[in-house]
Design a protein that fits this description.
Layout lengths: L1 E5 L20 E2 L2 E2 H12 L6 E6 L7 H13 L3 E6 L6 H6 L9 E4 L3 E4 L10 E7 L7 E5 L5 E6 L8 E9 L3 H11 L11 H10 L4 E5 L2 E4 L3 H14 L10 E8 L3 E3 L4 E7 L3 E3 L4 E3 L2 E7 L4 E3 L2 E7 L4 E3 L6 E2 L4 E3 L3
Parallel strand pairs: 1-4, 1-6, 4-5, 8-12, 14-16, 15-17, 16-18, 16-19, 17-19, 18-20, 19-21, 20-22, 21-23, 22-24
Antiparallel strand pairs: 2-3, 6-11, 7-13, 8-11, 9-10
């Protein structure tokens, strides 16, 4: 089994945290977003993952450090790494076709901003699968329409009238991905109208029209990490689900320290006279002193002092001594209340 992960976007809605690193490499607790995706697939998939194919943007942003990080992630799952570049943002179908040389055999496509909880089970009798989640407002999503045998008959993007409440979450299985490759080859020869893109759904629709069978499977939890607020909400879900393994004792304490689970605390962390949690993730090599922190993410090598914050994100290598109750502070930033 191959896994294709398109991740050429720059995550502009998550700035300032994506100014220095791609969104899929932002960590939630102990893993980057992209590894959470891979881990969820690998942990429930019966097939061995042989290769993970990452589709990145230009090298000035997705540089060698990014490639090295992704390679290390692949190695954790005993999978090979292959990298392709999407230099022109011409749509989801175009992104997949940037990896055309690898489009053969059974494969999963998983978009890097899709985080889920739930089983990924492959039906070997079908040509493809589309993972979905029931939503309250289907007009804001792409949805699937099913027939009486629960086969996917249509993919409809943001339907104005009700068709289905099963939204596509961005994970797909193909028994033979070369079939959609062949359809997308034709699609990419078409001249696009202004504002249009080459879409993955085009190939899926053509496969369905050619009597290929697609089934949908509903997952338990679907998380969006597209904005700082949504990233925090996703972190809460992940920390709640991993509450039993929270590592309250693996850090240095000084003075009165209160930990309200769930929390995640990285390596070489010092906490002094502070209350931390619930729903707080603290990265490696951080120091927290004389502070009260709730529902927040603090990335590696950052220091927080004399602060009372919640619903906040502090990037890597930050120093924060301020009076704000909620703050989004990018990497390598400093706020000192005494200055």
């Amino acid at each position: 089994m191959k896994i294709f992960i398109p991740m050429a976007g720059k995550g502009t809605r998550l700035r300032p945290f994506t100014l220095t690193r791609p969104k899929p490499l932002l960590e939630i607790t102990d893993k980057p977003i992209v590894e959470h995706i891979i881990n969820q697939i690998a942990s429930t998939l019966s097939s061995k993952i042989e290769e993970i194919i990452y589709i990145l943007g230009e090298e000035t942003y997705f540089d060698s450090n990014v490639v090295d990080s992704l390679t290390l992630i692949s190695k954790k799952y005993n999978a090979k790494t292959k990298v392709y570049r999407q230099l022109d943002k011409l749509g989801t179908g175009h992104a997949i076709m940037c990896a055309e040389k690898s489009l053969s055999g059974p494969a999963i496509i998983a978009y890097a901003d899709t985080m889920i909880q739930g089983k990924i089970e492959i039906d070997s009798k079908v040509d493809g699968m589309i993972w979905v989640k029931k939503v309250e407002n289907p007009s804001s999503y792409g949805v699937v329409n099913l027939d009486r045998e629960s086969n996917v008959t249509e993919l409809i993007e943001k339907p104005k009238t009700f068709v289905s409440d099963l939204a596509v979450v961005g994970i797909y299985y193909f028994k033979e991905i070369s079939l959609i490759r062949d359809e997308l080859r034709i699609h990419l020869k078409e001249k696009l109208a202004p504002g249009k893109e080459y879409l993955l759904n085009y190939g899926i629709k053509k496969m369905i029209k050619n009597n290929k069978i697609f089934k949908s499977q509903e997952i338990e939890t679907w998380m969006d990490c597209g904005t700082p607020q949504l990233l925090l909400e996703s972190a809460k879900i992940i920390m709640k689900s991993n509450e039993s393994s929270s590592n309250e004792n693996d850090f240095s304490r000084e003075g009165t320290v209160i930990i309200n689970q769930p929390v995640f605390i990285g390596d070489n962390v010092v906490i002094k006279n502070s209350k931390v949690g619930p729903y707080v993730s603290v990265g490696n090599n951080c120091t927290i002193s004389d502070s009260n922190i709730k529902s927040s993410l603090i990335y590696n090598n950052s220091n927080v002092s004399n602060a009372t914050i919640k619903n906040s994100i502090l990037g890597a290598n930050c120093n924060y001594d301020g009076s704000n109750k909620e703050i989004f502070l990018g990497d390598h930033s400093q706020i000192n209340n005494n200055e």
